[in-house]
Design a protein that fits this description.
This protein is of the alpha/beta class and about 375 residues long. It contains 19 helices and 13 strands. It folds into 2 domains: about 180 residues, Rossmann fold; about 180 residues, Rossmann fold, CATH 3.40.50.2000. The strands form 2 sheets. The chain has a 7-stranded parallel β-sheet with strand order 3-2-1-4-5-6-7, sandwiched between helices. A 6-stranded parallel β-sheet has the order 10-9-8-11-12-13, with helices on both faces.
Length: about 375
Amino acid sequence: MPKKIVIIAGESSGDLHAAHLINALKERSHNIEIGGLGGRLMKNAGAEIYYDLTSIAVIGFLEVIKNLRKFKYAFKLILEKIDQIKPDAVILVDYPGFNLKIAKELKKRKIPIIYYISPQIWAWGKKRVKLIENLIDRMIVIFKFEEEFYKKEGITVFFTGHPLIETTKPSDFRQVIITNNHLDDSRPIITLLPGSRENEVRKVLPIMLNTASLLYKKNKDLQFLIIRSPSIDEKVYGEILKVNKLPARLLVNNVYNLLSISDFALVCSGTATLEAAILQVPMVVIYKVTFLSWLFIKSLIKIPYIGLVNIAAGKKIVPEFIQYDTHPREIAGFVASTLADENKLEQIKKELFEVKKLLGTTGASKRAAEYIIDFLNGN
């Protein structure tokens, strides 16, 4: 009989990592059936998607409340599917607000639970550690410091390295990318990555555009690219861009190609900071949410940084402009002074390379797949 696996991923980054895991699982064994909650990438990898949870990916207390009905529907649906399918294991991918609630229900049903991409409990405090210890059968982590964290807590943990190491690379040579995107190789390129959630884009993109406009006023040689998330309607970007006359190009094609040719990036906090780090693109981290959401987040965060690149490094190697410190003039001042200082740029690139080394070696998804299959086979 084929092994039946249900995977639950709720955000774009989780959908990406889950898709790579699905490909690795299918490569390792042809006797696996996979379904679950996820998005376009999981579906393309061959999973049966019961509901696109990435379509309601939000952050912040108010945003969750607004989408509560959809979350309740997805919660009820996945439990019905699990009761029907009776899977050999459920793999939870990050997304702790939803997934830890699911884990409680799965525990009642005595279904094995594997957590892939650990919840960031090291950022939110240790209250959830005991919960994870009681609910999760196996924890698979992608940061070395997470392995050490869980081992200290007595939780069975396996470190794979970060899956982005094997996937974050351009698909073409620099000159091909430049030519295909009608860019001028003699002029600096600044890329804006305003996030993968609509509420992030609405808050962060205007700050990035105002920053870019200030930079452009001082240096007309600069070229600006805006990376659009395929999960967000293009109209959202259009509404914001109408207000700003910056000569920027909105692109949705290969983000790694575009990042690889960039001289600098303005990045919304999240996975994109690691992608820029792997490609050694100097950056600033920009993040803003609603007032109430910020109060909620600020009450929970227990670490000094919000950008994954700085968290992974264990120190601030790129500046973070967060919430009330998102002043375009300040951000533009830092970007302009950094671009004008070759030594500073080189130092940032060296530190980003050190972060890349901390993320492990290629083959993370394959290692995770082998570990999962061994677990399913009772090893």
